[in-house]
Each structure stands twice: as C-alpha cells, then as structure tokens.
C-alpha cells in the first residue's frame, strides 16, 4: 500500500497564490490546518477524519473551525484532532470557546459531537490504516512538535515550526528508513535576530543541523516567508551544498 502526501499549503504567509501550512495524507488525514486546507473542494473536505496539529499558531489551525462548520453535519462521525495536550488546551481556551468560535465538541450534542480531541504525547504512536504518526520534539515559541509518518515503505518527517533542537536531531537519527524530511526555514541569514526571537530556522542554522544527521533523507524546505523565498533558498544551497535541497511546492505530491 502506497502513501500519498499532497502539499495543500507550505508558505510562511499568504498572497499571490501562497497558502499556509496544510498537508493531506491520502484523502482522510490532515497534518496542520492552515489556509492550504481551503484549496480542497467540498467532497474532499467531507472525507477528512483526522487532523494532526504540530502547534496552535493561527497559520497552522485557521482552517479547522471552518472545516467543521462546512461539513460537520454531513459526516457520520466526529473529526478527531490529535495534538500535544498543551496544544489542545489552547484550542479549548482560545478557539472553540463560544466566543471566537462555537465549541463543536458539544454541537449538536456532547453525545454526538462534530469534533473530538485526542491528546498525543511526544513519542506516542497513532496508527491509522497502516500509517503510523508519532510526534517528535521541536523547539518553537509555543508548545510544538514535529511528526513522523511511518509506513512499510519508509518514513517521512515534517518538522513543523522549529529552530535547532538536539532532541529533534536525535529523533531523526533514530529513524533508519527516513526517506523525506520536510523542514522549515523561515528567514534569511540577515534576519537571524528575528529568527532567534521567534524560534525559526535560518539557512546557517539549518545547515548546521543537517551536518549532525547520520541519515540521508531528501530535504524539502517549507515555511519560507513571502518575498524572501529565492534569497533563503540561495543561501541554503550555499550553506549546505551537498544536500540537493529543494523548496516544497504547493500542489506537490510525495509518495511513500
């Protein structure tokens, strides 16, 4: 059985056809729910059963409440959101709180809701139809994780939003069948101060992290800030010339 990951959105912002982070695993699982989710047609939205969130920042969750509002009444089961407990607490307190958005864990009733939360701690595995998803450590400004997607054909890792993390590197080195690494680099080297303050990668920091890897996956860069994409990629290719680094593209499909 092959696994297909479709990139719905992978930009660090919006504008000129750019959409924020959302990845569709086959046709039933989302990894993050940014504005890329809005590129799906109605029939595709109905099929989404599970959403795995790396963290609670708006560019990674803004499509989730609209998804539930659009298709909740057409589904026979709730959409299950898997995330770190701290992330689910943010969603409960600040998003599905009856003020910013209705609490779909209680609509139409607590017995038959449209939304269900499923806490998933670091290192815990969730297996769905032959695909095992597991949160990995990350180092961001808020509680966050990366995600490993493991199949019989190999593994893919998505970093989510992060700056350098020894724990993340160790987790990657413990995945001998790692075939693809989707990892963020948000700012140019000249904006290292902003990158450090917001806990994102810049080209030199990512290059240093890649030198620590004992595995050799294909490297795909995500979360490039709008208008800076070419400059960031040029600096990455200079800083890590041996990796064949490529920018992730909206609409791209990765098959395992």
Which features characterize this protein?
alpha/beta, Metallo-beta-lactamase, Chain A, 8 helices, 14 strands, seven-stranded mixed sheet, 256 residues, globular, 25% strand, 24% helix
Topology (elements, then pairings):
Elements: E1 4-9, E2 22-25, E3 29-31, H1 42-46, E4 50-52, H2 58-61, H3 63-71, E5 79-83, H4 85-94, E6 115-119, E7 126-128, E8 131-137, E9 145-151, E10 154-158, H5 166-173, E11 178-184, H6 192-198, H7 203-210, E12 218-222, H8 229-239, E13 246-247, E14 253-255
Parallel strand pairs: 3-4, 4-5, 5-6, 10-11, 11-12, 12-13
Antiparallel strand pairs: 1-2, 1-14, 2-3, 7-8, 8-9, 9-10
Provide a descriptive summary of the structure in words:
This protein is an alpha/beta fold and 256 residues long. The chain has a single domain (4-255), classed as Metallo-beta-lactamase, Chain A (4-Layer Sandwich), CATH 3.60.15.10. It is 24% helix and 25% strand. It has 8 helices and 14 strands. The protein has helices at 42-46, 58-61, 63-71, 85-94, 166-173, 192-198, 203-210, 229-239; strands spanning 4-9, 22-25, 29-31, 50-52, 79-83, 115-119, 126-128, 131-137, 145-151, 154-158, 178-184, 218-222, 246-247, 253-255. The strands form 2 sheets. A 7-stranded mixed beta sheet has the order 6-5-4-3-2-1-14. Strands 7-8-9-10-11-12-13 form a 7-stranded mixed beta sheet. β9 and β10 form a beta hairpin. α7 (203-210) packs parallel to α8 (229-239). It is globular, with a radius of gyration of 18 Å. The termini are close together. The model has no long low-confidence stretch (mean pLDDT 97).
